[in-house]
Amino acid sequence: MMTDEGRVSLRRILERFTASEAEIDAQELRRESAECGGIPAQQCSRGQLVSVAGRLRTVVYTPRTNLPTLEADLYDGSDVVTLVWLGRRHIAGIEPGRHLTARGRVAVRDDRKVIYNPYYELDLPK
To answer: Cα-flanking dihedrals φ and ψ of residue 27, to 5°?
Structure first.
């Protein structure tokens, strides 16, 4: 007869075998984010002061006539938060695939969660 603990571990093993690579990656990112003390991006709401941790998916420089911006999509396994640095063309270390923790106040722009000029800490490359 199997205990509840044995069933849970067997269920986790079966989920790992049947999950897609993207699902496994998302689970790993959620776990790493929780270890860093980050709030899941899915739970962030407008006006909230948050700390989110994850991996940068995209980094885009957007030239504007009066104020250039550098935008990066941070994915933590639950949702995406866009980090926007105003007046910046490039920041050393901000590149796709890099893991970081960002802190700031959440805004909403075009139904997307955004943090303007976040405080950030780059994680060591793995």
So the answer is: -60, -40
Q: Half-sphere exposure (CA, 13 Å, Cβ side) for 46?
A: 6
pLDDT at position 26 over 80: no
What's the pTM?
0.77
Q: Where are the beta strands (DSSP E) in 1-126?
A: 49-62, 69-75, 80-86, 99-109, 112-116, 119-122
Pairing of strands 80-86, 69-75: antiparallel
Counting every residue written for the chain, the total comes to 126
59-63 contacts: CB < 8 A, separation 24 or more? Answer: 59/94, 59/95, 59/96, 61/89, 61/90
Burial of 120 from C-beta contacts in 10 A (0-12 / 13-18 / 19+): buried
For the stretch 63-108, pLDDT in tens is 877 888 999 999 998 889 999 999 888 999 999 989 999 999 999 9
Q: Which amino acid is at 94?
A: I
**Nearest Cα to Cα of residue 113 among 28, 32, 29, 52:** 52
